[in-house]
Amino acid sequence: MSVEQALKERSNSSCELCESKENLSAFEVGPNKDVHSDNACLVCSVCLDQINDHSLIDANHWRCLNGSMWSEQTAVKVMAYRMLHALKKEDWAQDLMDQIYLEEDDLNWAKQGVTDEGDIVVQKDSNGTTLLEGDSVTIIKDLVVKGANFTAKRGTMVRNIRLTEDPKFIEGKVNGSHIVIIAEYVKKQ
Fold it and tell me: Which domains does the chain show, CATH number per domain?
């Protein structure tokens, strides 16, 4: 029996993290030496995309972890731990992190997949849309540029923005000058 078939049987053909029944696939919970259903979980495409790219994380989607973190399957609990760690700035996620229980070996396995870039920085525009490196944005408020003799006018397009380590700011060029802009004063195109 294939790993994916074993996972479908084990999970009753639903995502082991959020219980969706759509677009399911096996996800190997690394690092492991062998591919086995004990080292994998069945996840939907929504969970998989966010596991692989934390900039896409929708915190509300992961509220499902309050159920899956109690799974009998260690791989599922490990993934719940890793995603809760990625969401640790959310109060509810921190509460769940305080409740989750993993044996010492399982906790070590869970921590192997956690990068302490775990404090993932996500910049959002004035509408709450996630900004990505290289996006184009429009300034929505006249901004006086400190250290320069101009004001970045409302409606000015800033192309190919760069993200900073601070979620409040982005960088871009306006009037040929490289400036730092408050993310909440822009709108993604």
Answer: 3-112 (no CATH), 137-188 (2.30.30.40)
Instruction: Sort 84 into a burial class: Cβ within 10 Å, 0-12 / 13-18 / 19+.
Output: buried
> For residue range 140-169, what is the model confidence (pLDDT) as tens digits?
999 998 877 889 999 999 999 988 878 889
- Tell me which of 34-38, 77-81, 185-189 is least confident: 34-38
In the chain, at which residue ranges do the beta strands (DSSP E only) sit?
Answer: 24-28, 40-44, 137-139, 143-144, 151-152, 157-158, 162-163, 169-174, 177-182, 186-188
Highest mean pLDDT among 32-46, 102-116, 129-143: 129-143
Decide: 14 and 21 in contact? Cβ < 8 Å.
yes
DSSP H stretches of helix in the chain: 3-11, 45-52, 65-68, 74-86, 91-99, 104-112
Whole-angstrom distance, CA of residue 103 vs CA of residue 188: 44
- Number of Cβ within 10 Å of residue 23's Cβ equals 12
